[in-house]
Amino acid sequence: MSAGQIEQIAERVERLLVRYEELQRTNALLSQQVDALTQERDSLKSRLSAARSRVDALLERLPDIKSAA
Fold it and tell me: Looking at the UniProt record for this protein, which Gene Ontology cellular component terms does it annotate, in alphabetical order (predicted)?
């Protein structure tokens, strides 16, 4: 193997290491976004459930249509 080939391999390895580090940072950011969106989804599901409960409670308080007629 010539010195030129070793140099090319070394440069390629260096580029791959840089790309690997970039991908690690991107992955960390995406993981943070997934965590944030998961928390937001859970919060919205909780709010939806509470709203449904309030609507159900209001519907229970409405007079029955049959008995009103």
Answer: cytoplasm
